[in-house]
Give the backbone structure.
Amino acid sequence: MDSTDARNKVPFAPATFAVMRTPLLPFDDFAALGVGLKASKTIDEMDPEQFETRLRSDRVLVRSRLATLCEQIEIREAIFLASPNLDENIPRDSMLPLKRAATSLFAASTRC
């Protein structure tokens, strides 16, 4: 078989079906993660030290909210199905997800 024949052969065929993903988490639950955050409200008016303090506080608050979401069986199962490694990195006996896990959880919650 020469190179022309190899290029003309397609190793796959079009599907006869479609898959649609829908988010498990309602948008209101996602939006609630950001309610009451302080760092972004007056970023132009704050000195850098005050901004960092508020940012740290906001991160703790969002991680706490993510931890609450992770207590739901449906959410944990969805995390496990999407990424078993991420599921393993979320502490089951701690109120706050690890920093890296929290970042991944937040990013995943924005996908649909």
Q: What stands out?
A: The chain is about 55% helix and 0% strand. The first helix runs from residue 3 to 8.
